[in-house]
Specification:
Elements: H1 2-11, H2 22-29, E1 37-43, E2 46-58, E3 63-73, H3 82-96, E4 102-104, H4 111-119, H5 135-144
Parallel strand pairs: 3-4
Antiparallel strand pairs: 1-2, 2-3
C-alpha cells in the first residue's frame, strides 16, 4: 500500500507530501476498528493498483456513504480495465451497505481521470470546494476549543 501511495504522490506531483508509514496503515486499517478499507488489484500475478476508501455520512440523505481517498493503477497496467474494476468493486461495497452515495476527489488537471469517471456516470460537483486544515494550523485550531 505504501508503495502505491508513493507512486500516486509522484503522479500527482507531490512526492514529498507522503508522511504515512507502514505502521500507520497497519494500525489504522487492520486493527479492531479499521478507519479505512483497501482493495488491491493484480494483473498476471503482478501488483497493479489499489483503491483506498473510508466511510462518511450524509445528513441530507440520512445514510452512510463511502469516500474513495485514493485510486491508482500503475502506468504499465493502465488500459486493461483495472481502474474501472477497482471503482466498481468499491461501488459494490457501497451498494451492499445501502450507502447514500459514493464520492471521491479528482485534480482539475487530471483530464484522463475526469473523462474516465464521467464515462462511468459520475458527475463533477463544480460548485463545491475542498477546505483543509492540517499540520501546525490544525494543532492551533484544536487548541482554540480547549
Amino acid at each position: 500500500m505504501l508503495a502505491y501511495v508513493r507512486e500516486l504522490a509522484e503522479y500527482e506531483r507531490e512526492p514529498e507530501s507522503v508522511l504515512a508509514t507502514e505502521e500507520d496503515f497497519l494500525r489504522d486499517g487492520f486493527g479492531e476498528r479499521p478507519l479505512f478499507g483497501c482493495v488491491m488489484a493484480e494483473w498476471n500475478g503482478e501488483p497493479a493498483g489499489f483503491a483506498l476508501y473510508f466511510s462518511n455520512y450524509s445528513t441530507w440523505k440520512g445514510r452512510g456513504g463511502i469516500h474513495v481517498e485514493d485510486i491508482f493503477v500503475r502506468p504499465a497496467f493502465r488500459g486493461h480495465g483495472i481502474g474501472k474494476a477497482l471503482l466498481l468493486h468499491v461501488a459494490g461495497i457501497a451498494a451492499q451497505q445501502k450507502c447514500g452515495r459514493l464520492q471521491w476527489d479528482v485534480l482539475e488537471w487530471n483530464q484522463p481521470a475526469i473523462g474516465f469517471y464521467e464515462k462511468l456516470g459520475a458527475a463533477m460537483l463544480t460548485e463545491w470546494r475542498i477546505m483543509r486544515v492540517d499540520g501546525d494550523k490544525l494543532a492551533a485550531m484544536g487548541e482554540v476549543t480547549r
